[in-house]
Amino acid sequence: MINFFSALGTDALFEILKQSNDATAIYTGEEINIQFANDAMLEIWGKDESVRGKRFEDALPEMEGQPFTQLLKNVWRTGEVYEAHNTAATLEINGKMITSFFDFTYKPIKNKEGEVYCILHTATNVTERQKAWELVQDREDQLRVASEGLNSLNEELRSSNEDLATINKEYVATNKQLDNANRQIYFLNDQLKQENFHLLLDKKVQENDISDLSLKNKSLSGINNDLQNLNDTIVKLNEKLTTSEMSFRDLIMQAPVAMMLVKGDDYIVTMINVTMLELIGKDVSIVGKPLFEELPELKGQRAANMLVDTYEKGLRHSDEANPVTLNRNGQLEQGYFNFSYTPYVENGVVTGVIDMALEVTTQIVANQKLENTIREKIKLEESLRNSEQRLRAILETMAEGVGVTDATGQMVYANPMAQQILGLKESEIKKRTYYDALWQNLRIDGTPLPPEEHPMAIMMTTKKPVFDYEIAVQPPDRDKFYLSINAAPMFDSAGNLIGGIGTFMDVTARRLASQGKDDFISIASHELKTPVTALKASLQLLQRATTSLSADTRARLLEQSVKSLDKLTKLIDGLLDTSRMDHGQLKLNKQSFIISELFEDCCSNFAQNTDQKITFEGDVDQEVIADHQQIGQVMVNFINNAIKYAPESDILIKAEVLHKKEVKFSVRDQGPGIPEDKIGHLFERYYRTNYQGQKFSGLGLGLYICADIIKNHGGKIGVESEVGKGTTFWFILPL
Q1: Are 600 and 729 part of one and the same domain?
Q2: Rounded CA separation 615/236 (Å)
Q3: What are the φ/ψ torsions at residue 469 (nearest 5 degrees)?
Q4: Residue 485 neighbours by CB distance under 10 Å
Q5: What is the 3-state secondary structure (H, E, C) of 455-509?
C-alpha cells in the first residue's frame, strides 16, 4: 500500500483548483448545479460557500436577462467549448449591482464514452485592462482630434501663406507704383522749380503760364491721392499679416496638446505652449534659443532625426509610442510619445518645423504591465493545464481507485480504476454518496457497516487522514469483495473542510488468502490430528494388551496403524510438495513410458478400495516423455476425486493424441457435477468443495499441486462439468 500523499503529490487537482488565484468553478447536470467554486470565483460572484450545491440561476439570480445561464446549458447539451473575451457581466456585490469585464471559458469535461459529466468554468477579471484600453482609446481620440486641429491649422497656415504671398505681390507692385509716383513727383517738383525760376525771371511769362501751372498742380494732387491710397493699402496688408501671425501664435498657445515652432538651421524655438514646456521640463526662457542646445539629450534619438529630416526634406513625419529620453527634473528618464512634425513654409520655402506631441507613457507602461500580466497568466494557465494533465494521467493510470467527495459526502470524481473495482461507470458513482445504501457496505465479519464507521465518515469527523481501513462490499449482482481504503480531508484557504479524497484497492485476494490460511491451519490441524489419534490409539492398545489380544485383533490394529501412517504421509507429502512449489524446488525427472503402464500403476492404487468400474480407452500404446511419478500423481488425484464425489458412477479414463503434437488425458464420471460458480476456484490453493452438503477430508491442495505439475510440463489443465450430468477433469501434455 503506497502512501496516499506520495501517490497523489502535493499538486493534487482539487487542491490546485481550490488554492488557485484564478477563478474556477465546476458545474454538473442539465440544471447547472454548482459543485465546486474556489475562493477567487466566490469573490468575483460576491457570494460565499453557501452557493455550492445550488443551481447556477438560483445562486446568482442577478444573472436573469444575461446570457450566461443559457450558454452553460448549451455547453452541457452540445459538449462544445465556449470561450469569450472582454465580456461584460453585472453581479450583485455587497448589495450593489456592479458591471465588470471578464475573459472566461466554459469547458465540458467528458468521460471515455464522450458523455459530459461536468463543466469546468475558468474566468479572469479584465476590468482594469478594459479601462486601460478605453483610456488609450480616449487618448487616441484626443490625438486624432488634435491631429485634425493641426491639419486645419496647416490648412489655415497654407491659406494665410497664400494670402501673404498675394499681399507680398501686391506690396511689391504697390512699391513699384510708389517708386514711379515718387519719380513723377520728383520730376514734377523739378519742373515746378524750373517753372518758379522762370516765373521769377519773367513775371509776364509766369502770368501767361498760370493756367498751365494750375493744370499741373491738379495733376500733382491726383498723383498724391494715388500715393495715399497705396500707403493705405500697404498699412492694411501689414495689419492683415500681423493678424495672421497672431492667430497662428494663439493657436499654438491654446492648443490642447503640446506644440512648438522651431525655425532656421539652428532650430530656434520660436513659439511654444505651456503644455510643451511641461512635457520637456523647461520654462519660457527656452524661447529664442536653439532646441538641441537646450535639449542636448535629444541628439541621435529617432525623434530628433525625424525632426531634422522634416526640415531638410520638407516631408511630414509622425510616429506613435516612440520612446524618447528627456532630462526632466534633473535626471534622464524615458517616456513614450505620439508626435507629428509638419514643415513650416514661408513664401514657398521651408523655414521651420511645427512639432505637436502627446505623452502616452502612462498608457504604454499600463499596457506593458497588462501584457506582462497576461503573459504570466497564460504561462500559469499553461502550467496549470500541464499539471492538471499530468495529475489526470497519474490518476487515470493509478493501480488504486481514487474517489473524491464534497463536504456532504457526494461523490464528485472517480478515476478509471475506481470504476473498474466498483463495477460502475463514473456517472453512476457520482449519483451516490460514500454511505449510500446501494453500496451494501459491510464489516469484515460480514455484518452491516454503520455509516459512521465508514473510513470516509471517520475522516470527515476527525478531519484527519485514515489509512488501510478494510471494509467489505456486497453488490447485488456479483460476489462480495474487500477494499482497503485511505481517506484524506480537503480544506479551503480558510481551513474549512470542503470534502475528502479516498484511495482504495481491491484486497479480496489478500483477504481470501488470509482466510484460506486460517482455514488451512484449522483443517490441517484436524486432518493431521485424525490419523495421529487413530495411530496412537492402535499403538496404545498393542502396547497395553499385547498378550491378551488375539492374532486377528493385533493384525487389524497393525493394518489400521499402517493406514493412518499412509494417510499422514499423504498429508505431509502434500504440504511438502506445496512448499517445494513455492520455492521452485519441485524438480522434474522426465523419462519415456507407455500410457498403458501409467494406467496400470494408477489402477493398482484403487483395485481393493472401490467397487466402481474403471475403464481405460484411447491411444493407450502412445509413448510419452514426462515425469512418470508426478503425472501418475495427477491421474491418481483425478481418479480419487471421481471416486470420492461420484461414488455411484462408473469412471472412464481416456488418452487421445491431438494433431500428433499433444496427448490429452481425461477422467470422466457421471456424478452430480460441479456448480459453475465453483469451477473457477477448483485449482486454487486450500480450496475445498462439498458434495450435497457433505465435507470430505483433505487440505485443499490436491488440484492446486496438479495444476503446477502440468504447468511445469508445459501443458494445460482444466475441467468441464454440468450439474446433474457429470464432470470431466483433463490435462494435455506435449509429445
Answers
A1: yes
A2: 148
A3: -100, 120
A4: 25
A5: HHHHHHHHCCCEEEEEEEECCCCCCCEEEEEEEEEEECCCCCEEEEEEEEEECHH
Using an 8 Å Cβ cutoff, are 574 and 705 in contact?
Answer: yes
CA 20 to chain centre: 12
CA atoms within 13 A on the CB side of 350: 18
Strand, helix or coil for residue 195 = helix
Q: Is there a contact between 22 and 39 (Cβ–Cβ < 8 Å)?
A: no
Digit-coded pLDDT (tens) for 651-672: 999 999 998 899 999 999 998 9
**Per-residue pLDDT at 313 exceeds 90:** yes
Residues 51-56 have a mean pLDDT of 92
Is 60 exceeded by the pLDDT of residue 619? yes
The phi, psi pair for 653, rounded to 5°, reads: -110, 130
Q: Name the one residue in this structure whose C-alpha cell is 489443465.
A: 717
Residue 711: give its domain's CATH number.
3.30.565.10
Q: Which residues are CB-contacts of 107 (< 8 A; sequence separation ≥ 6)?
A: 75, 81, 119, 120, 121, 122
pLDDT in tens, 273-284: 999 999 999 999
Does one domain contain both 597 and 699? yes
β-pairing verdict for 614-618 and 651-658: parallel
150 & 209 share domain: yes
Can you tell me whether residue 654 is helix, strand or coil? strand
Asked if residue 154 and residue 243 are part of one domain, the reply reads yes
**Residue 262 and residue 250 in one domain:** no
Domain that holds residue 536: 511-580
CATH of the domain at 548: 1.10.287.130
Residues 6+ apart with CB under 8 A from 215: none
Same domain, 724 and 591: yes
Taking the C-alpha atoms of residue 636 and residue 604, their distance in angstroms, rounded to an integer, is 10
| Number of structural domains the chain divides into | 4
Dihedral of alpha carbons 580, 581, 586, 592, sign: positive
Q: What is the dihedral of CA 363, 369, 370, 373, to 10 degrees?
A: 180
Position 491: which residue type? F
Contacts (Cβ under 8 Å, ≥6 apart) of 633: 705, 706, 709
* Residue where one domain finishes, among candidates 309, 332, 359: 359
Q: Computed from CA positions of residues 67, 73, 78, 79, in that sequence, does the dihedral angle turn out positive or negative? A: positive
557 belongs to a structural domain: yes
Residue 663 included in any domain: yes
Please, how many CA atoms are within 13 Å of residue 716, restricted to the half-sphere of its CB? 6
Whether residue 49 contacts residue 42, with contact meaning beta carbons closer than 8 Å, is answered with yes
pTM above 0.70, yes or no: no
Answer yes or no: are the C-beta atoms of 715 and 734 closer than 8 Å.
yes
The contacts of residue 270 (CB under 8 Å, 6+ apart) are 260, 261, 262, 263, 287, 288, 352
d(CA 82, CA 699): 65
How many residues does the structure list for the chain? 735
Contact indicator for 669, 651 with CB cutoff of 8 Å: yes
CA 634 – CA 653 distance, rounded (Å):
13
Helix ranges, 53-126 (H) = 56-59, 68-78
Neighbours of 179 (CB within 10 A): 10
Q: Which of 70-84, 119-133, 247-261, 470-484 has the lowest mean pLDDT?
A: 247-261
pLDDT at 719 over 90: yes
Helix (H) or strand (E) holding 441: strand 441-442
Q: Closest Cα partner for 109 from 123, 120, 98?
A: 120
